[in-house]
């Protein structure tokens, strides 16, 4: 659950995670058992009910792998519920300004840091079995992981002020939305240049830099730049493997 301070590992060395876009605890557990360092449940683009999200978090953690929820939006019910489910953290898309980032901090933290609603009967609080209630609130604030997306030209231009917001652990460069915002095709060299600049700036600020990659070469590249939170997805690998198999079988 979110009392495990997994983000310490992210500061120490790169961690490779996997997007899980299907509403399936079994697939989430499978990805965890394959050897990924964390699972990232995609409830921004994936169509996943809240009860299923909780079971996916549980499945990943039962396999010994932390689980992050990418919520749909920067709203109270999305952030609050993901953390109450016991997710190790949340990742919030489309954060463009200091006001946006401060709202994330407000929603993700118990008082006095933020205004997250206090409850002691949730999975995150061990269903009321956590002995020290005050200690739980403090420890939950310290150990939960909070990531925001840098995926528009506005966010890139505001990166310096976004990096000044305390309590944000990770800044995720979203290459798909960033390329759209820049009016360029995915994989364009200018998008890669902006990505590199952002990752290096994030690392220099002492924060965790993250992004998405789809192959070994690009993964090695972003790690060399300083990214420690690197996410891929199984879709491309499954597609390629199945096509190779069918082409081989059918000649």
Short summary:
The chain has 251 residues and is an alpha/beta fold. Helix content is 48%, strand content 16%.
Give a description of the structure.
There is one protein chain. Helix content is 48%, strand content 16%. It has 12 helices and 8 strands. The protein has helices spanning 7-12, 25-34, 50-62, 76-84, 98-108, 133-143, 153-157, 159-163, 175-182, 189-204, 216-225, 234-250; strands spanning 15-20, 38-42, 67-70, 89-92, 145-150, 170-173, 208-212, 229-233. It has an 8-stranded parallel β-barrel with strand order 1-2-3-4-5-6-7-8, surrounded by 7 helices. It is globular. The termini are far apart.
How would you summarize the topology of this molecule?
Blueprint lengths: L6 H6 L2 E6 L4 H10 L3 E5 L7 H13 L4 E4 L5 H9 L4 E4 L5 H11 L24 H11 L1 E6 L2 H5 L1 H5 L6 E4 L1 H8 L6 H16 L3 E5 L3 H10 L3 E5 H17 L1
Parallel strand pairs: 1-2, 1-8, 2-3, 3-4, 4-5, 5-6, 6-7, 7-8
Labels describing this entry:
48% helix; 8-stranded parallel barrel; 251 residues; alpha/beta
Number of strands: 8
Give the uncertain stretches in residue-range form. none
User: What is the radius of gyration?
Assistant: 18 Å
Based on Cα principal axes, name the global outline. Answer: globular
As a percent range, the share of strand residues is 15-25%
How are the strands of the largest sheet arranged? 1-2-3-4-5-6-7-8
Question: How widely separated are the two ends?
Answer: 49 Å
pLDDT average, as an integer?
A: 95
N to C succession of SSEs: HEHEHEHEHHEHHEHHEHEH
Amount of helix = 40-55%
Q: Largest beta sheet, briefly? A: 8 strands, parallel, barrel
**Contiguous helical run count:** 12
Q: Could you say which structural class the secondary elements and strand pairing correspond to?
A: alpha/beta
């Amino acid at each position: 659950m979110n009392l495990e301070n997994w983000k310490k590992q992210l500061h120490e060395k790169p961690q490779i995670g996997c997007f899980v876009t299907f509403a399936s605890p079994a697939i989430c557990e499978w990805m965890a058992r394959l050897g990924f360092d964390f699972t990232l449940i995609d409830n921004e683009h994936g169509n996943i009910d809240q009860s299923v999200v909780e079971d996916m978090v549980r499945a990943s953690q039962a396999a010994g792998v932390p689980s992050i929820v990418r919520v749909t939006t920067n709203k109270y019910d999305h952030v609050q519920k993901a953390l109450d489910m016991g997710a190790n953290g949340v990742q919030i898309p489309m954060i463009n300004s200091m006001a946006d980032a401060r709202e994330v901090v407000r929603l993700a933290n118990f008082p006095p840091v933020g205004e997250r609603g206090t409850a002691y009967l949730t999975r995150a609080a061990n269903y009321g079995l956590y002995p020290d209630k005050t200690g739980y609130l403090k420890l939950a604030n310290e150990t939960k992981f909070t990531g925001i997306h840098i995926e528009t030209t506005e966010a890139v231009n505001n990166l310096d002020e976004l990096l000044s917001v305390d309590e944000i652990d990770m800044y995720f460069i979203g290459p798909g939305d960033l390329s759209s915002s820049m009016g360029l095709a995915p994989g364009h060299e200018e998008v890669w240049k902006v990505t590199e600049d952002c990752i290096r700036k994030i690392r220099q600020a002492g924060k965790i830099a993250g992004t998405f990659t789809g192959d070994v070469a690009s993964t090695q590249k972003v790690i060399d730049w300083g990214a420690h939170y690197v996410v891929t997805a199984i879709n491309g690998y499954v597609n390629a493997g199945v096509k190779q198999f069918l082409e081989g079988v059918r000649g």
